[in-house]
UniProtKB/TrEMBL annotation:
It comes from Dulcicalothrix desertica PCC 7102. Mg(2+) binds at residues 166, 197, 222. The keyword Metal-binding applies. This is o-succinylbenzoate synthase. The active site is at 134 (proton donor), 246 (proton acceptor). One of its GO terms (molecular function) is O-succinylbenzoate synthase activity. The lineage of its organism: Bacteria, Bacillati, Cyanobacteriota, Cyanophyceae, Nostocales.
Length: 305
């Protein structure tokens, strides 16, 4: 099948810049690709790279789009190299129509620092029961003190709430142990700490593997499994706890499907602050492939001005 190919770059400013251990993120840039069939039907897909996370850059994606002829076919799309994972996702999802995904449980992302506490209240009231809080942004004693209040507010007082922490690879080994001890104690008191995400940088896989065997609190890999090749490597090296999957940057959705069907891995699907085009395709994959006891990290769909 031949398609008429066009693409449109976009740029959106966050209402509240996103703060992580990697720094402050103010503008989300990406590309919407359109594939028009001979009968006039148009399929859309989204390319939303995060270079600091291990995907290609926006420039590389733009260069790839610009290098293509006006007419392309699915054979070309299925042969996009693994060095362009966000392009693989954008083009492949534009080939197929996505039905409305069934309803999923969503996790809400709290702002870093102490504003998390106030932010959690209206989110709880609007129905969120899983919250993710970024750590390794401020000094650890400050964050431990805020965490204590956060747990009192949202998890302990109100039954059935869960909290996940995301360090974005920003902890030292000692800090990671301190967080894990803290979480283990809370868990022993009935607090639902779902997991700590990417405590150490991806260069420290072996240490994370050891930590995952030494504490009750679970660990999730995120930066370490940014692409499908990374995920396969971590799985083959013995990772059996949680894998965060960011569909828009992991690469080919058909290869992801294949991997998840062959290996019963524990997954958490997560957004990269894409538009509704990528979001719909990503949620479809999440509903097919995620374990339904884990909320998807696609909460609050109004990030942008
Ligand atoms: O996963 C979520 O709940 C929200 C999305 C999120 O945290 C995120 C979004 C963009 C880039 C990196 C990350 C991250 O998980 O580190
Ligand atoms: Mg993360």
């Amino acid at each position: 099948m031949k398609y008429l190919f066009t693409f449109h770059p976009y740029k959106r400013r966050f209402i509240h810049p996103v703060q992580t251990n990697h720094g402050v993120w103010e503008i989300r840039e990406g590309i919407i690709v359109s594939l028009k069939q001979e009968d006039g039907q148009v399929g859309q897909g989204e390319i939303a790279p995060i270079p600091w996370f291990g995907s290609e850059t926006l420039e590389q994606a733009l260069e790839f789009c610009s290098s293509l002829p006006k007419q392309i076919d699915s054979e070309l799309i299925l042969s996009i190299p693994d060095t362009l994972p966000a392009c693989q996702f954008g083009f492949e999802t534009a080939l197929t129509e996505t039905p409305e995904p069934p309803s999923l449980q969503f996790s809400a992302l709290l702002p870093a620092g102490k504003s998390a506490i106030d932010a959690s209240i209206p989110l709880w009231q609007s129905g969120y029961r899983t919250f993710k809080w970024k750590i390794a942004v401020n000094p650890i004693d400050e964050e431990l003190a805020i965490f204590d209040l956060l747990v009192q507010k949202i998890v302990q007082n109100l039954a059935n709430g869960a909290i996940r922490l995301d360090a974005n690879g920003g902890l030292s080994l000692d800090e990671a142990k301190l967080w894990l001890e803290t979480c283990d104690k809370l868990m022993a008191n009935g607090v639902n700490i779902e997991f700590i995400e990417q405590p150490l940088p991806r260069s420290q896989f072996e240490q994370m593997l050891e930590l995952s065997a030494s504490y009750n609190t679970k660990l999730a890999l995120d930066e370490s499994v940014a692409t499908l090749q990374n995920l396969e490597t971590c799985y083959s090296k013995g990772w059996r706890q949680i894998f965060v999957i960011k569909p828009l940057i992991i690469g080919s959705p058909s290869k992801l499907r294949q991997f998840c069907q062959q290996n019963q891995i524990d997954t958490v699907f997560s957004s990269v602050f894409e538009t509704d085009v990528g979001r719909t395709a990503a949620l479809q994959l999440a509903s097919e492939l995620s374990h339904h006891n884990r909320a998807v990290g696609f909460g609050i769909n109004h990030w942008f001005q």
